[in-house]
Amino acid sequence: MGNNIVTVDNHKLQQEQIQQVRTPRRSTDYQQIALYKDVNPLDWEDWHWQVKHRICAKEELTQVIKITPPEEAGLRKAAGRLSLAITPYWATLMDAEDPACPLRRQAVPVADEFAVSPHEMVDPCAEDRDSPAPHLVHRYPDRVLLLATEHCAMYCRHCTRRRLVGDNEKEEINPAQRFDAAVEYIKSNRKIRDVLISGGDPLVLEDDEIENLLKKIRAISHVEFLRIGTRVPVTLPQRITEKLVNTLKKYSPLWISIHFNHPKEITKRCKIACDMLSDSGIPLGSQTVLLKGINDRPYIMKKLMHELLQIRVRPYYIYQCDPVRGTQHFRTPVATGINIMEKLRGHTSGYAVPVYVIDGPGGGGKIPVGPNYILSQAKGKYVLRNYKGKIYTYLE
Ligand SMILES: *Cc1c(COP(=O)(O)O)cnc(C)c1O
Question: Of 280, 236, 225, 281, which Cα lies nearest the Cα of 259?
Answer without folding.
Answer: 236
